[in-house]
Design brief:
Elements: E1 5-10, H1 14-25, H2 27-34, E2 38-44, E3 50-52, H3 59-67, H4 84-91, E4 95-98, H5 110-119, E5 123-126, H6 129-146, E6 150-151, H7 163-169, E7 175-181, H8 184-193, H9 199-208, H10 217-220, H11 223-236, E8 247-248, H12 256-264, E9 268-278, E10 281-291, E11 305-311, E12 315-321, H13 326-341
Parallel strand pairs: 1-2, 1-4, 4-5, 5-6, 8-10
Antiparallel strand pairs: 2-3, 7-9, 7-11, 9-10, 11-12
Bound molecules: NADP nicotinamide-adenine-dinucleotide phosphate (NAP).
Residues 10-16, 44-48, 84, 99-102, 109, 127-128, 154, 158, 325-326, 329 line the site of NADP nicotinamide-adenine-dinucleotide phosphate (NAP).
Length: 342
């Protein structure tokens, strides 16, 4: 049996809390199947305090406190720091789970959290796309030099295996192109508009369902989809690719009338993510497209997503996930965790 693995969490929102619930429900299974015994020694948030306890923080208690709008500092055995570098040094953890909001422009402060964790010998696992697009090579090389893992399965298509599929199963395959639906919020909005709801009302409905954020521009303007495209190109095509290099158009100009007209013709509007190699170049885009019933993306509805990879050896290979959410994102983090320490 391994020694206790000590975990630190930066970010305890939708994803951090879902991870905590999954760690609780999988505790016995992790010990039995993988001989992993874990202890959460630190949790840090933005506005809800931080806690450090080398003996282990009771996750159920932390969840109750956060759900009640409380401050985690009450659970701390030592005075917690709001500075994340000091927090990470004080935790003495083996693994960092970084789940703070994405910063499309710079990837910070998540990159700094991941870099610090790797520097001090922790595995660094994240659902945050910023570090992948803005610092993939830096963090990968640092992880290699430290003999630690930098893993980010949940950054694209939540817990569906995308990066591990290419890393572990599709050995020797060369990715020539991909095409998919990668943003849940816009796909849900377009699905709702098929019921004759206006774009504005569909956004409100998606917000009420807890899918769209208060400021939905990251999704509806195509930023979230574009950063996922940049992450896939950077990692799977091994070509450093910035967000600005993805030609981007959101769904703001798609009216209810346009959606209903295509529906009558047996077609659907979808926000399509694409990238392909052209010689040494990569051409990548996110834009609304009309797809017909023969298209594999035609039946991807609501918050579901899908991607078709074209490789030199397998032709088309499609991965599709139904109704993802923070719980499936949490699974991707858990799978990365088992991969890192199991
Ligand atoms: N939601 C999903 O299903 C999903 C799916 C795939 C990927 N992701 C990615 O996962 C990450 C987390 O998403 P989420 O939905 O959990 O976000 P969220 O609910 O907004 O939670 C973010 C957490 O990070 C904390 N935080 C913010 N700034 C911080 C800082 N500077 N230092 C330390 N903690 C900070 C927040 O604390 P306070 O609330 O106290 O300020 C909160 O606990 C994002 O990068 C997102 O893109 C999410």
């Amino acid at each position: 049996m391994h020694e206790d693995t000590k975990l630190a969490l930066i970010g305890f929102g939708n994803v951090g809390q879902a991870l905590a619930r999954l760690l609780i429900s999988k505790k016995e299974e992790l010990a039995r199947r993988y001989e992993i015994i874990y202890r959460v020694v630190g949790i840090a948030t933005g506005r809800h305090g931080a806690a450090i306890n080398p003996d282990g923080i009771a996750l159920e208690t932390a969840l109750h406190m956060i759900e009640a709008g409380g401050d985690l500092s009450a659970l701390s055995l030592i005075p917690p720091s709001t500075d994340m570098t000091s927090f990470l040094h004080a935790c003495h953890a083996d693994v960092l789970f970084e789940n703070t909001p994405v910063n499309y422009a710079t990837g910070q402060p998540a990159i700094e959290h991941m870099r610090t964790a790797l520097e001090i010998g922790m595995h660094a696992i994240t659902a945050n796309k910023g570090p992948v697009v803005h610092a993939y090579h830096l963090l990968s090389e640092l992880a290699l030099s430290k003999g630690r893992a930098f893993l980010f399965e949940s950054t694209v298509m939540d817990g569906a295996p995308i990066f591990s599929l290419w890393r572990e199963a599709l050995l020797g395959a060369r990715l020539s192109s991909f095409r998919g639906i990668l943003n849940s919020t816009t796909n849900l909005i377009l699905t709702l508009m098929e019921d004759g709801i206006s774009f504005e009302d569909a956004v409100i409905r998606a917000q009420e369902m807890g899918i769209a954020e208060t400021d939905p521009s990251g999704d509806v303007d195509g930023w979230d989809a574009a950063i996922k495209v940049a992450a896939l190109v950077t990692v799977l095509m091994d070509v450093p690719f910035s967000l600005q290099e993805v030609e981007r158009q959101g769904i703001g100009n798609i009216s209810e009338a346009m959606v209903l007209r295509e529906l009558e013709l047996g077609n659907r509007w979808k926000l399509i993510c694409e990238a392909r190699r052209e010689g040494d170049r990569i051409i990548a885009s996110v834009h609304p497209q009309v797809v017909d019933a023969q298209d594999p993306l035609f039946t991807v509805m609501g918050t579901s997503s899908a991607i078709t990879f074209q490789s030199d050896v397998l032709g088309a290979l499609t991965i599709r996930e139904e109704d993802p959410g923070p719980h499936t994102t949490a699974y991707g983090l858990l799978a990365d965790f088992i991969h890192a320490v199991g």
